[in-house]
Amino acid sequence: MDRSNVNRRKFLQYAATSVTAMSLFPSITEKTLASSGQPAKTGETEKLYKPDDPRIKFSVIGINHDHVYSQVDAVIRGGGQLISLYAKEPELIANFTKRYPQVKLAASENEILEDKSIQLILSAAIPIDRAGIGIRSMQHGKDYMSDKPGIISLEQLAGVRRVQKQTGRIYCG
Length: 173
Hints:
Layout: H1 8-24, H2 26-33, E1 56-63, H3 67-77, E2 80-86, H4 90-99, E3 104-105, H5 109-113, E4 120-124, H6 127-139, E5 143-146, H7 154-167, E6 171-172
Parallel strand pairs: 1-2, 1-4, 2-3, 4-5, 5-6
């Protein structure tokens, strides 16, 4: 697929809208998203993957809130390909890798940030850490989609705006 035809802004708008819409309909999303954080039934999540035609390659940094599952599933449904994960908590990693067994575990946040093939970083890290992850992602040439709240202080907001302006990258949260 010719990546020059990918409109990353429309893609992220679609993904963010999907995540928001799915959170409004828990009876619908319960079956497909396993919002409790429990692994999906075998084969359920795999049906979402389109490895032959990914429109965007993405990774995850920080999985401290179960909304990460709806974020990941929305991007996959939009044609994204999950590449790697970095998180510090072994018990959270275990649940995530059960649901997404194909994900590569990164040894550090920097390993993901320096991977030139990654176009988007998702995060459901602890709220105080989200803006920093987003800033570092944009500084490494990647767009960023955070669980809410993505910014918790005026200082973080100023930093995010400054880096957005410098890099032209997307910060969605």
